[in-house]
Amino acid sequence: MTASHSSMRQGSTGDVWEKAARAGYAVSGALHIVLGILIAQIAFSGGGEEASSSEALSSLSDNTFGVVVLWFAVAAFAALALWQLADAIRPHDETKDRLKAAAKAGVYGVLAFTSASIAMGSSSGGGDSQAQGIVAKMLGWPGGQFIVGAIGLGILAAGVFHVVKGAKKKFMRDLMGVPTKSGRMVRGLGTTGYIAKGIALGIVGVLFVYAAVTADPDKAEGLDGAIKSLLDLPGGQVIVVLVGVGFAAYGLYSFVRSRYAKM
């Protein structure tokens, strides 16, 4: 392990990298709370709203204060991406842990880029139109259907992972030092949040696989499309509201994680 890597990854509590990474969890929490609100709005708008990470971030860009917050989000997400990347290249971890860290680094990197794009006024389109455009390009590649299908299966697996992690409360392993009196509340937030997020990811994965099987990029939809699919189910309005509450719960759990995460 290099000296720079050690200082980034194993600095004492209060280390600037640790503070920045913890801020990333807090920003992620705020993002999920906004997403929860947007998802709940879909339930009462008949599907006329959008719910995506870019839409949630875009809601901050309407005023000067919001733009400042976006640039703070860029720094926080970038720090969290670097923190996870350091985990991914750490030689003493198990391969599966390194792969999970690499995936998280990619997610936070995309969020940092999206935040910067919105802050600079270069955000474009909704989540579903972006997803369909990317899938359309992939389907034109040699073996494109298999690539899109593999991505869909990966997203579906991530959804199952979230549901299992929430149901078995494995997320508590990510925390340390949580006050005993707060334990029940934290477990409730984490369980609700992980399961709700897992359900949404699972549906997105299924839609991507369907797009691959039918070779139709219009079938590939992001979070917005997944939520609208739930809305079409019997009792869909209630289900969507519960998913929105779940995303907000995940956001609140992320605030707890920013304070008590094992770093």
Structure description:
- The chain is mostly helical and 263 residues long.
- The chain has one domain (3-260).
- 75% of the residues lie in helices and 0% in strands.
- The protein has 10 helices and no strands.
- Helix 9 packs across helix 10.
- It is globular, with a radius of gyration of 18 Å.
- This is Membrane protein.
- The chain crosses the membrane at residues 21-44, 64-85, 105-123, 143-164, 194-213, 233-256.
- Residues 23-89, 100-168, 193-260 form the DUF1206 domain.
Summed up:
By secondary structure, this protein is mostly helical. The protein has one domain.
Task: Show the helix and strand layout.
Elements: H1 3-9, H2 16-45, H3 53-58, H4 64-88, H5 95-119, H6 127-139, H7 144-167, H8 183-214, H9 223-231, H10 236-260
Helix pairs in contact: 2-4, 2-10, 4-5, 6-7, 7-8, 8-9, 8-10, 9-10
